[in-house]
Each structure stands twice: as structure tokens, then as C-alpha cells.
Design goal:
Layout lengths: L1 H25 L2 H9 L2 H8 L4 H37 L4 H31 L3 H11 L22
Helix pairs in contact: 2-3, 4-5, 5-6
Length: 159
Amino acid sequence: MRYGMITLAVVAAISALAGLVSFRASQDAEVAAALAKQDALAWLRTDFQLSDEQFKAIKQLHESYSAVCAEHCEAIQDATRERNALRAKQADAATLAAADRRVTELTQTCETAIARHVRQCAALMSPEAGERYLALVLPRIARFDHQAPPDVAVGHRHH
């Protein structure tokens, strides 16, 4: 029984390693390079096979939206700091509830705006690429932490 468990553990480890090596080897080199540089636009261009025209239009959308996104993040951060300061001072329940509502409202405004931006970008892609982009990005919006605009950092909560 003991050798069976050891054998099972060794086989599992070898299988996991083989899977990782296969995954890494199958990645598109350009996509991997864009991810390594954390360049969202290069990742979009490569992974979603954007034409020069599509890339230019999405880049313009991204550049014009970046300021809006930064403003949303800053407003959420300010409201969160204010709410946290009120909590630290043990403010009354009504004041704390109002501060919580303000953070929630600002977060909803941000998430609605970024979802609209993502849909605008997807609309400029081929139908297949746009659907894949939406499926990948839309579910992540609610997980942003609103510290800075989102990027392609894998496993990194951003905003």
C-alpha cells in the first residue's frame, strides 16, 4: 500500500509537469511576449488577430477611455478612504451607511462604464474574436480592486 501511494504521487507529479510543459510549448510566442511585457494592446492585437485598422480603432478607444477609467479609480479610492476614516472614528450608522452607498455607487458606475468600453472594443473585432474577448473580460470586471486601470496581469487584481 505504501509503495502504491508513493507511485501515485510520482505519477501525479510527472503528469502535472508534462501538462505544464505542453501548455507552455503550445502558447503563441507573440501572445506570451505581450503578456510578459504586460502590454494589453499588444496582447489584444496578437491574441485576437486584429487587423491594422481594428487595432488602430481599439487603440483610440482605449486611449480615450483611459482618462475616464483613471478618474473612476481615483473617485473610488477617495470614497473608500473617507469611508474607512469614518469607520475608524466610529461614526454613526447613518453616516457609515451613506459612505458605503457612495463607494457602491461609484463602483457600479465604473463597472458599467468599463463593460460598455469592453463591448465597444469587442464590436470592432471579428464576431468570433469579439465573443471570445467578451467571455474572457466581462466576468473579470467585478473582481477589479479599483487601484489602477486594468491590464493583462495574470492573477493580479487590478484597478
